[in-house]
């Protein structure tokens, strides 16, 4: 009898939750860009949605004080009393919302709050309505729960804002959530009072549908009228509205991983149960830093916004010089969402035909040396996203490469 010495390797079998989910398009673009840079290629990155500013000094000092004071231990899993008080004061001061402590939860990044709220409330067969374009993680998280993301395309002529009649038609007995991000990643769209009101009227008629609002870019706005969030417009609907926010974008604190939200106590109780069996509390030091960001001087927020405004004007000026690209000037965020369909079917100098946004972005990356993100990653094929959270020199060079790349197409 012959005995084989071959080693039998175990077969990895992913869970059902991961059967339709993989790394995000942004992550893939980051990996491809890093790989080319390791090969010595000069790549201008206009793909990452991260402020290029440093975290404010007063926030850093608050973290140092917390460490020296021994604040390096577990906190309550939904946030220390200090950070929850800071969040409560922020909501009251800036949004006119009065939350009790049991209606506030602090998480390891805002994404964890989105994930926990969905985990706590949706199940197989439920539906979540996502107006497109939307941040790609929304649909992936919904898919991981075994639920169905119902993607509602919006129109550039409507400023990429969801229309009430489209929402009404999309709601079914299985609909559990509507999720809107304002200002929007990737379109820069802001929902105003008059935009939210008809949407809230539709939701009033469908009590099984809850409303999740992602206000992460609240402070990066370029309009003169004040920012609004749905819970302040319809207090009578607050019992099914979750307002999500965080410190990452406004205070250049992406690596500190602090998100927070206010919502009805039963929902937040369920979110705490999810946190108790997943991340537990967020980093105690990051909580102290975030409390200082929310409580401290806000002049840095205004200064960052002023810089983004200048970069926005630069991007608009550059785009105006590139034929066959269309766009809506962003009202907020540090993104521009570009319609490139005027170039569909054109050929690169190597003879490659550009058939979709993935092929365009690959061309811009590998042949032109500039990284952007395809619109299909945001539920809107035919577009690509530019981030202008970079220094002026990088923006000018990146836009120059896009202009040259488009001109080279035949």
Note down, in words, how this protein is organized:
This protein has 410 residues and is an alpha/beta fold. It has two domains: 22-49 and 300-407, Aspartate Aminotransferase, domain 1 (Alpha-Beta Complex), CATH 3.90.1150; 71-295, Aspartate Aminotransferase, domain 2 (3-Layer(aba) Sandwich), CATH 3.40.640.10. It is 38% helix and 14% strand. It is built from 13 helices and 13 strands. A seven-stranded mixed β-sheet has the order 2-8-7-6-5-3-4, with helices on both faces. It has a four-stranded antiparallel β-sheet with strand order 9-10-13-12.
The fraction of residues assigned to DSSP E strands is 5-15%
Task: Tell me the CATH architecture of the largest domain.
Answer: 3-Layer(aba) Sandwich
The CATH superfamily of the largest domain bears the name: Type I PLP-dependent aspartate aminotransferase-like (Major domain)
Q: What is the multimeric organization of the chains shown?
A: single chain
Q: Could you tell me how far the N terminus lies from the C terminus, measured between alpha carbons in angstroms?
A: 68 Å
The shape is globular
Number of domains: 2
Residue-averaged pLDDT: 95
Please tally the helical runs, counting DSSP H or I stretches of 4 or more residues: 13
């Amino acid at each position: 009898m012959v005995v084989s010495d071959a080693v039998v390797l175990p077969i990895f079998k992913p869970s059902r939750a991961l059967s339709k989910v993989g790394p995000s398009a942004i992550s893939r673009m980051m990996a491809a860009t890093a790989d080319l840079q390791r090969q010595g290629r000069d790549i201008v990155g206009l793909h990452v949605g991260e402020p290029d500013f440093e975290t404010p000094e007063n926030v850093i000092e608050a973290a140092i004080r917390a460490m020296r004071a021994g604040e390096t231990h577990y906190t309550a899993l939904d946030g220390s009393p200090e950070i929850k008080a800071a969040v409560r004061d922020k909501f009251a001061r800036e949004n006119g919302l009065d939350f009790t402590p049991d209606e506030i939860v602090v998480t390891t990044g805002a994404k964890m709050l989105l994930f926990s709220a969905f985990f706590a409330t949706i199940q197989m067969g439920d539906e979540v309505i996502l107006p497109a374009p939307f941040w790609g993680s929304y649909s992936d998280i919904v898919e991981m729960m075994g639920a169905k993301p119902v993607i509602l395309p919006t129109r550039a002529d409507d400023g990429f804002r969801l229309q009430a009649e489209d929402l009404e038609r999309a709601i079914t007995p299985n609909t559990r959530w509507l999720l809107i991000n304002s200002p929007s990643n990737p379109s820069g769209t802001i929902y105003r009072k008059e935009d939210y009101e008809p949407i809230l009227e539709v939701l009033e008629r469908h009590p099984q549908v809850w409303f999740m609002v992602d206000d992460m870019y609240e402070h990066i706005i370029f309009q003169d009228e004040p920012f609004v969030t749905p819970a302040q417009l319809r207090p009578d609907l607050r019992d099914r509205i979750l307002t999500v926010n965080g410190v990452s974008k406004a205070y250049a604190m992406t690596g500190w991983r602090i998100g927070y939200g206010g919502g009805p106590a039963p929902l937040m109780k369920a979110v705490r149960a999810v946190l108790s069996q997943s991340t537990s509390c967020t980093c105690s030091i990051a909580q102290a830093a975030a409390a200082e960001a929310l409580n401290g001087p806000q002049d840095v927020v205004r200064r960052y916004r002023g810089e983004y405004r200048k970069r926005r004007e630069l991007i608009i000026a550059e785009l105006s010089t590139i034929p066959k690209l269309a766009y809506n000037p962003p009202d907020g965020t540090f993104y521009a969402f570009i319609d490139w369909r005027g170039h569909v079917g054109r050929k690169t100098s190597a003879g490659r035909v550009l058939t979709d946004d993935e092929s365009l972005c690959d061309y811009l990356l590998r042949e032109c040396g500039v990284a952007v993100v395809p619109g299909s990653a945001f539920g809107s094929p035919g577009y690509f996203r530019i981030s202008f959270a970079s220094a002026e020199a990088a923006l000018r060079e990146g836009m120059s490469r896009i202009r040259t790349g488009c001109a080279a197409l035949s």
